Amino acid sequence: MVIAPEVNDYKLLKEVLGILFDLPPGGCIIRSVMAGTPGHPLPKKLGIKAGHKVCLLNAPGSFVRTLASDDVRITHDLRLPPVDMVVMFVESLEELERRFTDVLGRLHPAGGFWVAWRHTSRGARELTQDVVQRIALAAGMTMNKVCAIDDAHSGVRLVLRGGNREAMAYRAEPPPISRRTRRPTARIAARLVRSTSGAGSSLRRVRARSTK
Fold first, then answer.
1. pLDDT tens track for 54-87
2. Three-class SS string for 161-181?
3. Cα(77)–Cα(26) distance, rounded to whole angstroms?
């Protein structure tokens, strides 16, 4: 859109580009730009919801700050599965292949796995949507969303295919409570035998007296 020069250019610019003028005290334009279009903040664009456990791998600091929220639990490792959403930034195809299995093994059955890579990195030529989708299909996943993570990174979201999601549903269930009873030790077993035999002997003596 071309804005013709007028006397009230400032007012017109403020109406069109209000996001640049109406910033709160200490506000930052970069955060709004990374969040995507107005009304569609980055967490919503990525499918991150309140209560989600989100794992960020190799994420730049600006990206981490954009997702910071009291309603979302952010981690930077995969030690506490299952994870609802994983966002992994990779620089090469080798790195993606090496870490793919680890992420898949700790992902919630209904979770999402975002793979992000820099447009201008050395591995950008070998990292494409088609290549990522091929790796996902080989692992039982499929690609269901594509978006620009920020001005420098592309991203695709991978999810488990229907049949695999059902097969992995056990990950979302709480572990069963163990009801295994402990076997009595030799000392306890001997006590049980003596108490049982003693009770039987007393009962026999009572019966014998009653018959006299």
1. 999 999 988 888 888 888 999 999 888 899 999 9
2. CHHHHHHCHHHHCCCCCCCCC
3. 31
118: number of CA atoms within 13 Å, CB side? 10
Residue range 122-170, pLDDT digits in tens: 666 788 899 999 999 999 999 999 998 888 898 999 999 988 888 888 8
**pTM assigned to the model:** 0.63
Q: d(Cα 196, Cα 190) in Å, to the nearest integer?
A: 10
Give residue 1's identity as a one-letter amino acid code: M
Mean of per-residue pLDDT scores for the chain? 75
Give alpha helix (H) positions in the chain: 9-16, 18-21, 29-34, 42-46, 61-67, 93-105, 129-138, 162-167, 186-211
The residue type found at 30 is I
Domains of the chain are 1-28 (no CATH), 35-172 (3.40.50.150)
DSSP state of 39: T
Strand partners, 150: none
**Do the strands 53-57 and 83-90 form a parallel or antiparallel pair, or are they unpaired?**
parallel
Characterize 185-207 residue by residue with b for buried, 16 or more Cβ atoms within 10 angstroms of its Cβ, and e for exposed.
eeeeeeeeeeeeeeeeeeeeeee
Nearest to 62 by CA among 33, 25, 83, 37: 33
The yes-or-no verdict on residue 178 having pLDDT over 50 is yes
